Amino acid sequence: MGATQSGSGAPYDPNKLETWKLQHVQMIYDKYVSDNFDFGVTKPDFKTLMTAVDGSDELADDLWDMMDPKQAGMIATLEALCALIVGCQGDLDGKVDLTFNCFDFNNGGDISYDEMVILMSSALSGMVKLAKQGMPPDDAEMEKLTDNAFLDADSDMNGTIHKKEFSDWVKNQIAQNKTTLTTMDILQTFGLITADQAAESAPAPAPTSEADPFAVEESGGGDQSSAPPAPAPAAAEGSGGGVWSGTVAAGVGSVKVEHTGSDVVFDLNGKTAQCQDHGFSSVSDLQQFAKLFATRLKVEGKKKDLVLGPWKHNDDLKDFLQLCIVNLADKATALKQRKVVLDRQVAAM
Known about the structure:
Helix content is about 45%, strand content about 15%. By secondary structure, it is an alpha+beta fold. α2 packs across α3 (about 55-65) and α5 (about 90-105) crosses α8 (about 165-175).
């Protein structure tokens, strides 16, 4: 686990991550734990966290922009920590050790399957944003990657991964016995970029989508207990796509709601606005999602186009973030159940 650029010959500059030592990232992690920062933080809180390293204000701004490419106004703290770990200078053992500690939430000396799900999602997403290459895995890919990683790492098959097992897994399966490991190496190992992309010296910017759901017209602090929205799956379970709901948008009127593929489409007399479904897979969740997003609808221009504006009220944004948390928890439970099935299959071999 190493930086995209080594930076080994450059003098230390608190605003250049490639010159940071692992001890600087440790200072950030220690402040994250001691001051009880949330999984999701706003920019002012993130800049406060980064004050653990003196003079790093410019880096805090740069890292924020990388972790928040869609200008959501909130980032996943663990993604940023993973980016700092892989981007700084340091030996592989030290980086593996600090990564493990970040996700051993109860300090029990081992990582559960649920913690491994969060580790894989946070680390890969953080590295994709840091490298500005590739795309984070979708739900199906993440499920497969986590299943394989947990089964490979849990060598004694006791249902948890202790630190030595995690270290052995990283060194043998990811680093493949190399003493250094770059961001591009890791992304290529997990199939998130090609060999040609890994060889490029100037990464392309990460793709962006529609106006971000987290933007708020007037910020009032917001709920910082959120996790990032999950990648979008296919159509809702049992919905089969098509028009399945309707809702009322203040100042707009009654709109039809359609779930098509991974998009939610709002229709007002033939004028449409759409957004990604953000990983909500049940009809009830999608209906609640549509009701919340309908508060952002407005009619603009001479042609009376239907558009999605920013959030008008922080309470609606908070409800959306809480819905994201519940959705991620449900998926973690489903993945844990899948692990039980896989364990039985392995035991039967």
